[in-house]
TrEMBL record:
Gene3D superfamilies xref list: 2.30.30.490, 4.10.1240.50, Homeodomain-like (1.10.10.60)
Classification via Pfam families: BAH, ELM2, GATA, MTA_R1, Myb_DNA-binding
Annotated Gene Ontology cellular component terms: NuRD complex
An annotated GO BP: negative regulation of transcription by RNA polymerase II
Protein name per its UniProtKB record: Metastasis associated 1 family, member 3
Superkingdom, taxonomy of origin: Eukaryota
SANT domain sequence ranges: 261-313
Lineage of producing organism: Eukaryota, Metazoa, Chordata, Craniata, Vertebrata
Organism: Takifugu rubripes
One GO molecular-function entry: zinc ion binding
Limits of the BAH domain: 1-142
Residue span(s) of domain ELM2: 143-254
Main location: nucleus
Amino acid sequence: VAASHYVFFENSSSNPYLIRRIEELNKTASGNVEAKVVCFYRRRDISHSLIQLADKHAKELEEEKETPTEIELTEKQKHQLRHRELFLSRQYESLPATHIRGKCSVALLNETESVLSYLDKDDTFFYSLVYDPTQKTLLADKGEIRVGPRFQADVPEMLQEGEPDDRDQTKLEEKLWDPECPLTNKQIDQFLVVARAVGTFARALDCSSSVRQPSLHMSAAAASRDITLFHAMDTLHRLNYDLSSALSVLVPAGGPVLCRDEMEEWSASEAAMFEEALEKYGKDFNDIRQDFLPWKSLTSIIEYYYMWKTTDRYVQQKRLKAAEAESKLKQVYIPTYNKPNPNQISVTNGKMATVNGAGPGAYHAAGGGRACESCYTMQSAQWYSWGPPNMQCRLCVSCWMYWKKYGGLKMPSRLLPRSNHMMPMRNSGSPKSSMKTKQAFLLKVSRLTKMARHMCRDIIKLRRAARRPFVPVNCGAVKAECKSAFNFSYASSHPTFMSQCVATVFLTCVHASMDSHVYVHVGEPSTVEVSARVRAAALADGWRSAGLSWTLPQQDRHCTHSLNVCVCSRHVEGVGGSGGPSAQAPSRPEEHPDQCGAVLR
């Protein structure tokens, strides 16, 4: 078994199995394996009033459907279907892995599938409600597609050119920045620099800030956070982009304005308490505020959480958790359990028994003429005692396994009162209870586009472009700059040069010394010799980086262009003397996939 598997646990020799979902497997100090599991409850484990409430809720959902359709089930099928219904809980517990007796399957109730499919599959269960054993409540565990006037706005018709807008502007959103403002990008950047400088000066005057940021570097870093930039740009917009008025607002008569966000407001002890609470409760911010930080508002805690996720402490904790998860047990082998059950009352060496553990008079008197309390059979290879001892009831092998797995008998018994605590059977989908499929997408950017962001910084500035989202970017100038940088005159005569330069270039470093010659095979018709001084720097993951310059052959000197790249090499072979190269790189990366590589930056 492994994590996320649904399994049977045995905590009593006479009671049905517990159904649990394994969250993680842990090895104790004594060498035993324990499983942290999520609890599921059967109908027999929940109070009669809650079962009635669940059935009433299901009946109301069935009545809301436009075309309700119910499957005609026999009394036996309805009785057995009750045994397949479970209730999920948020309760966790740790159980010994040696108590696992097998695997099962648990799924959210699928209303588009026939309910008979749950009876046709062995060890299959379903659930639709969540049970809270502490509060004794039931909640639905499925989302809804909220369609209709209760959940969606009525989109008005688009206004024609010149048509007045009669809507109440006070009820609409508020504009925070005008892309068509009269200020130039240079003026805006200069004002933001002044705002950061004012923030640094304000922290120098503030006593509490001097304690939290004792160095000028830390104060300047705190003043450069988004809260300062937001305040500066909001001030510009509020004063109609008048620079002189905005500057006077930044430094009023009482002293410079000090802007702080939640990351700066919280003390070190509060940050430590927050991390402890997050470890205990997860992202349950209400419980975090109630038990750990009652003096903080819920808004403050949530804002701090998303800022905390950008810090190095979060990255370190994430790495530690990943390493801890890697060291945990992934799966464990559970051998077949063959020990005899204490409720076993008769062994017949594999032969069919015609009496139920005693003489004919005994089983007729105890069972009312029935040998097995469930299926009424009078022959079985093994019998098990079941129910109150004074009733002397017994089950055959098949019914005993059914009782252990499903928590009931195949047929209703006089000891199990008949109950209608079962949700109405249905097989047609309901738009109110269907889960909306989330569409995922991936934006894959080419390497050339990534390089263009760095090579064309003089042409396109991302921050300035974001301030004026309606002004198109001059793509022609970007392409021209890239062409100039990559020297397309050489690429026109060597078609494979550009394709392999933009992609990852694989090479072999033939010397481990600081001075080395490197050969790079970039195409069938041509080979480019690269002569460079390799500046190897050992990185944390064992790779080496170096700066290189491309040098084209003598016959192509008219189009020589220097291109800086970053070479990453995991294996640097010290082969040959210092006079020249002794090896040549492979022409295809798949020949030596783990040898080395050069990535354009």
